Amino acid sequence: MADPRTAPAQSLPIEDARERLRVLIRDLAVVRGHVVLSSGAEADHYVDLRRITLHHEAAPLVGRVMLDLLQREGLVPGIEAVGGLTLGADPVATSILHASAADGTSDPLDAFVVRKANKAHGLQRRIEGPDVTGRRVVAVEDTSTTGGSVLTACEALTEAGADIAAVAVIVHRSEASRETVEAAGHRYLAAYDISELEI
Ligand SMILES: O=P(O)(O)OC[C@H]1O[C@H](OP(=O)(O)OP(=O)(O)O)[C@H](O)[C@@H]1O
Ligand SMILES: O=C(O)c1cc(=O)[nH]c(=O)[nH]1
């Protein structure tokens, strides 16, 4: 049997890839202690998924696990691109792009980056990458607490004329995010629940 720590993410059975990524998130991303969150709320733990999405072993597993989620939920094949609000969403999107190119069972996915503010020079684009206008996309995020960040991305995508098939996050941190995203009319999917991280 392949060693999940050294085998290419693509060659692992999905259950092994999912469990290995869960262990990496638990061991490398969970930080206990007082923290101020993006929303301004305070908490006693943080899940720093940038330590996962930019990690040599974990990043390919992120792509594999998130692509599998989109396939199981019937979104791939079907969508054409993934992306979200910079910075947390960026490596999530590119990991899925690479996993989809390696998977080869459907058309490869593009990625995009939603800027937090419009760029004032150059082409002044809010959404970078291949154009999303008229394309079916999934808005991704590393983690979601209030849902505010991913909804900001959704608003920019709608303004740009994209068709949002769903929102997908690696770690679902709070029911508030699901409620907010669903109230805005979007499907909400998560690869892991915070309860799986043994905090
Ligand atoms: O659901 P929310 O309440 O919006 O919180 C979640 C957001 O917080 C973090 O990003 P952060 O705002 O710290 O910015 P960064 O991605 O630029 O690091 C995380 O990457 C999510 O985007
Ligand atoms: O709400 C947030 O800002 C937040 C929570 C968390 O666990 N991780 C993170 O990156 N952001």
Could you explain the architecture of this structure?
The chain has helices at about 15-30, 50-55, 60-70, 90-105, 150-160, 175-185, and strands at about 30-35, 40-45, 80-85, 110-115, 125-130, 135-145, 165-170, 190-195. It has a domain at about 60-195: 3-Layer(aba) Sandwich (Rossmann fold), CATH 3.40.50.2020. The protein contains six helices and eight strands, in the order H-E-E-H-H-E-H-E-E-E-H-E-H-E. With about 200 residues, the chain is α/β, with parallel strands linked by helices. The radius of gyration is 16 Å and the shape is globular. Helix 1 packs across helix 3 (about 60-70) and helix 3 crosses helix 4 (about 90-105). The longest helix is centred in the N-terminal third of the chain and has 16 residues, at about 15-30. It has a six-stranded mixed beta sheet with strand order 5-4-3-6-7-8, with helices on both faces. The mean pLDDT is about 95. The site of orotic acid has 10 residues, from strand 2. 1-O-pyrophosphono-5-O-phosphono-alpha-D-ribofuranose binds near residues 141, 142, 144 and 149. One of its GO terms (molecular function) is orotate phosphoribosyltransferase activity. Belongs to the purine/pyrimidine phosphoribosyltransferase family. PyrE subfamily. Keywords: Glycosyltransferase, Magnesium, Pyrimidine biosynthesis, Transferase.
